[in-house]
Amino acid sequence: MREATTRFATENGQKYLTQLCKHFAHKIDVTQSGDQGELRFSCGTGYLKAKSDGLHIRVLSPDDTNLNDTKSVIEDHLLRFAFRENAGPLVWYPVGSATVNFLEDKDDQD
């Protein structure tokens, strides 16, 4: 599996998480619970977490092509929803197998 993470710095992380989940729920399987969301695309899965410093996104896909497709669809929609923030492209970071799951509450410092 391929994995990448990014953070969209904003005070509106919860708002964008909710917008993304509601939007994609019309087309794909989506789960949202509180400050977390999961988007299950055919090309990969996106995990969202709203935190005080922004919206954290983790994407998992079986290969690089699908990873790029999953990142692109999430990023494109997020930047459209957040157009008032004049944000540039997201910076994605590849993740190794030893990465701590950023969705685990015990690791949150908020």
Can you identify the CATH class? Alpha Beta
What form results from the Cα inertia axes? globular
Q: For the residues shown, what is the average pLDDT?
A: 89
Distance between the termini: 29 Å
Radius of gyration: 13 Å
Number of extended strands: 6
Instruction: Determine the strand fraction and express it as a percent band.
Output: 25-35%
Put the structure in a nutshell.
By secondary structure, the chain is of the alpha+beta class.
Describe it.
The chain is α+β, with helices and mostly antiparallel strands. It has a single domain, classed as Alpha-D-phosphohexomutase, C-terminal domain (TATA-Binding Protein, 2-Layer Sandwich). Helices cover 27% and strands 31% of the residues. It has two helices and six strands, in the order E-H-E-E-E-E-H-E. It has helices at 13-24, 64-81, and strands spanning 2-8, 29-33, 36-40, 45-51, 54-61, 93-94. A six-stranded antiparallel beta sheet has the order 2-3-4-5-1-6, covered by helices on one side. A hairpin with a 4-residue loop joins strand 3 (36-40) and strand 4 (45-51). The chain is globular. The model is unreliable at 97-110 (pLDDT under 50).
